[in-house]
Amino acid sequence: MTVRLRFAPSPTGYVHIGSLRTALYNYLFAKHKNGSYILRIEDTDRTRYVEGAIENLISALSWSGINHDEGIFVEDGKLVQKGNYGPYIQSERLHIYKKYIDNLVEKGYAYYCFCSKERLDEVREQQKNEGKTPMYDRHCLNLSKEEIEKKIAAKEEYVIRLKVPKDKDITFNDAVRGKITINTSEVDDQVLIKSDGFPTYHFAVVVDDHLMKITHVVRGEEWLTSTPKQIILYNYFGWEAPEFVHLPTVLNKDKKKLSKRQGDVAVSDFKNKGYLQEALVNYLALVGWSPKENKELFTMEELMNEFSFDRVSKTGGVFDVDKLNWINNHYIKQASPERIAKLAIPTLVESGLITNDDIKNRFEWIVQIVDAVKERLNYVNEIAEHVKIFFGNEVQLENQEVYDMLKLDHVKNLLEVFIEELENVEDIDEEFAGSIFKVLKKKTGVKGKNLFMPVRGAVTGQLHGPDMGKILIALGKENTIDRVKYAIENHI
Ligand code: GLU
């Protein structure tokens, strides 16, 4: 059997990283089994409609490298659908839902309900006062065909409800949580078709998962309580239910649901800050799933090979930004300086450090300064702080330690020899940068800390920092000479 999995988000305008993880697990399992991964849009809640949301969603997914085989795609700025089970947007499937709801009504498994909101509120209020669980009182369950037709002809508003069998145990298996049984006595007669004619999530999801031949439904655990209602529908239709896999919620450090109020939760927040897609995906894979070996760095390919549901945890996965930063730093170190430079340009422009002319005329130099500092970054947008040392040719000393270091007796001579060496070359190249400290040591007899620190202090104003060779290359001959002369004149 070829497996078919789907990610079925509602287009709300942004993609929560918890949703991205759901998409990822669907994708990884489908690919692990050589099956298909489908993107379906669940947009039946028209009150939540957001312009451009589907395009945003697809762009976040494709940035993440979670590419679907079937469903909705964006081509030349337009939405297109591909696959044999479309349409893949629920709002375009109303005619299909109509056919299936008529079938349920005919069989007596669903019924029209004309109750007004006021009446429903009253009933609910009364039930609450009596200490009962608020539930629809089935007022409309036994309306005759004629009564229904008359009301519809009179344009009375209605919904269609599921007739939930009373006091029945519904059992299903969840790949993460095992066997789950829920008694229907507490299950309300769920609305299947709303008064605007659109299906509810519960109805559409079952019809679509069946018609699209979905074999595994992988989704957040917030849908666990909805599953019995969906099982009832599968039973009424006589369809085989797919396998269910409910994923633990992504939590913050306080073990609460990760929410917008606490900061970054949207995929675009992370992208815009300069998290690399391979880092975000690698990290998210580990939030709620543990690999066999104690390994933390995975390529998408490796995740596909290793992923299985039996290693998904039952308890919520904690989203740990420090760990994400560590993983992101690893991938930034591995990435080419050109790639990081391109990602860094917007923040460098915004912080006023570079201009559009620099981008056009000095891209190589931007790459050099990025190359010098990138290994220190948790995410790309931290870069402005780190590259400040490359700007200007009069360097301010960072703290007293630097002053003290430059005041040591041997420093003036050391820096003068350094200037001589600089003046002897056309510009600073790899060779110069790689040998200059050896040359200075030979010529002055100074070594170790006393050699490296004053040079770094004079050139950058700091005693610690990125690789000195890379710094010298990025600064170039003239700027380095200016800086060292300034240090000699002002700090020695
Ligand atoms: N549309 C639902 C959501 O936004 C999908 C739930 C499911 O996968 O069944 O999460």
Bound molecules: glutamic acid
Topology-level CATH name of the largest domain: Rossmann fold
> Which structural class fits the helix and strand makeup?
alpha/beta
Assign the CATH architecture of the largest domain: 3-Layer(aba) Sandwich
The tally of beta strands, per DSSP, is 13
Return residue spans where pLDDT drops below 50 for at least 5 consecutive residues.
none
| Radius of gyration, in angstroms, nearest whole number | 32 Å
Topology, please?
Blueprint: E1 4-7, H1 17-32, E2 36-39, H2 53-64, E3 70-75, E4 78-82, H3 94-106, E5 110-113, H4 117-129, H5 145-153, E6 159-162, E7 169-174, E8 178-183, E9 191-193, H6 201-211, E10 216-220, H7 227-237, E11 243-247, E12 250-251, H8 267-273, H9 277-286, H10 300-306, E13 317-318, H11 321-334, H12 337-350, H13 356-361, H14 363-373, H15 383-387, H16 400-406, H17 411-423, H18 430-444, H19 449-460, H20 468-491
Parallel strand pairs: 1-2, 2-3, 10-11, 12-13
Antiparallel strand pairs: 3-4, 5-6, 6-9, 7-8
Helix pairs in contact: 1-10, 6-7, 9-11, 12-14, 14-20, 16-19, 17-18, 17-19, 17-20, 18-20, 19-20
Structure summarized in a few sentences:
With 492 residues, the protein is of the alpha/beta class. It has helices at 17-32, 53-64, 94-106, 117-129, 145-153, 201-211, 227-237, 267-273, 277-286, 300-306, 321-334, 337-350, 356-361, 363-373, 383-387, 400-406, 411-423, 430-444, 449-460, 468-491; strands at 4-7, 36-39, 70-75, 78-82, 110-113, 159-162, 169-174, 178-183, 191-193, 216-220, 243-247, 250-251, 317-318. The chain has four domains: 4-90 and 250-318, HUPs (Rossmann fold), CATH 3.40.50.620; 93-209, Glutamyl-tRNA Synthetase, Domain 3 (Glutamyl-tRNA Synthetase, domain 3), CATH 3.90.800; 335-390, Orthogonal Bundle (Helicase, Ruva Protein, domain 3); 400-491, Arc Repressor Mutant, subunit A, CATH 1.10.10.350.
